[in-house]
Amino acid sequence: MSESLKRLLHSPQGLLGLVIIGLALLLVVFGAWIAPYDPNKISLLARYQAPSFVHWFGTDNFGRDLFSRVVIGARATILSAVGAMLISTSVGAVIGTTSAYIGGRIDEAVMRTLDAIMAIPSLLFALLIVSTLGQSASNALIAVAISGIPSMVRISRSVALSTRQLDYVSAARARGESSTYIIIQEILPNIISPIIVESTIRVAFAIMLFATLSFLGLGAQPPSPEWGLMVSSARAYVFQAPWMMYIPGLAIAAVAIGFNLLGDGLRDALNPRSRS
User: Fold this and answer.
1) Considering the entire predicted model, what is its pTM?
2) Fewest beta carbons less than 10 Å away: which of 32, 88, 151, 258?
3) How far apart are CA 222 and CA 45, in angstroms?
4) Taking phi first (over 0 means left), then psi (-120 to 50 degrees means alpha), and beta for anything else, what does residue 275 get?
5) Domain that residue 19 falls in
């Protein structure tokens, strides 16, 4: 692990991604102490103020401090995306590994079902789920998690197909271990590296998808300072106060890029062939 961390820190994209995600996590953990104002406090006399030393990111149409709203909104946006990806990664890894180990008709049925699901674009699939469950941040999280499961199943299955033929899996079968034990104790721990890399990269997709659902009014609801909802609320004022839309949009892009860079760095750091 220490050697992998050294390779990650020596990777330019990995180091930059680590810095961006580290700053984002600081906002998530300490956002309530960093924000100088109440993010939902309305001040009609302070509406549409441009960025200044008093309001670093300016104010919105209700006079609310945008810097405070962006800082507080990091928790809602990032935690929702990370939570959705943890769910989809856990479920997808178990299904994909189990399908690869069992093989045969069960594996074929699982993969053909996933092929049919993956033919539907992720956004459309998430929209169908949220429309069925109802408009809320929790339902949007469930929709993002479900839409990410098929891709994680395919990735974990592809890695597990080669792993199931290795000697330690054959030795576990010879000892008479159950299929559940072999999947959980023998196969999953040895394919965790590519799953971690892929899940890190897909957090960026989850952030974009969750923000899109909120932008469409299907995720977080007002007056939540969720970034996608902030961009949606600012559309009507783009010419009057463009910072209302640009700043939360840049926050979404920065965090998504950070997770992509971190995933690329982890891919190189966890690759046993990349030794310096």
Assistant:
1) 0.87
2) 32
3) 21
4) beta
5) 2-269
